[in-house]
Amino acid sequence: MAARPIRVTVWHEFRHEKKHERVRSVYPDGMHVVMKQGIEKNLGNAVKVRTATLDEPQHGLTDEVLADTDVLTWWGHAAHGEVQDAIVDKVQQRVLEGMGLIVLHSGHYSKIFRKLMGTGCGLRWREQAEREILWCVNPGHPIADGLNDEKFELAHTEMYGELFDIPTPDELIFISWFEGGEVFRSGCTWTRGKGKVFYFRPGHETFPIYYDANVQRVLANGVKWAAPSSSTAYAGGGRNITTPLAPIASSHVVDPSLHKH
């Protein structure tokens, strides 16, 4: 029996393209459409990709959509504060249950990323169309699969520099160098509950970065890596075990009324 396709939801704020001609000229149908096409190009029938945007009801992330999502990608920038806290809580719960999350570029300041990281997630930045080299420091990682060199370059991009206020990553895959001299941890992974989280830095709205073949390949690899690998239930919510695994002396029995909430 063929494996079920990975169900991907590409979430995008989708505001810059509506308001700024410079951005619209690069992504006339929105960044989310280019991301969707790149994932489909690299993974073909192995994925089923939908998009969702901020201004849709419930930001396009209804209970039904989240339940039908194996991997969620997230791009936001100018409207992080408009994302409803109730939706953020639902996304967090789905990650804990095993849904993968890929946070892109300025999504580092999104409510969901900061909630999962537990830190401010701040960084230094400069928008001067600088050259960037992304060095792969973990070439054996699945997210780096298929890259033809130890590095790849973006001719014009926004600089993100350290310090990046994040927890120490479980795995570091890419480090960026910018021609202004800064460096940045551009490809980081974590596990939260049963879910895998991947932060990938490239993707400023005024540059055609999501058309880049290497960026598309890494994004697609991230989808494969972040897809749930287990169907067992998430047990992180805690539960009261009423049947002991070993006999307990009667003198050690606790009055159950003491533990009523």
Name the overall outline.
Answer: globular
Major β-sheet profile: 9 strands, mixed
By DSSP, the count of extended strands is 9
SSE order: EHHHEHEHEHEEEEEH
The portion of residues assigned to helices is 10-25%
CATH topology of one domain: Rossmann fold
CATH class of one domain: Alpha Beta
CATH architecture of one domain: 3-Layer(aba) Sandwich
Q: Radius of gyration, Cα only, in angstroms? A: 21 Å
SSE class:
alpha/beta
The CATH H-level superfamily of one domain is Class I glutamine amidotransferase (GATase) domain
Strand line-up in the sheet with most strands: 2-1-3-4-9-8-7-5-6
Beta-strand portion reads: 25-35%
For the terminal residues, how far apart are their CA atoms? Answer: 47 Å
Spans of at least 5 consecutive residues with low confidence: none
Average pLDDT rating? 93
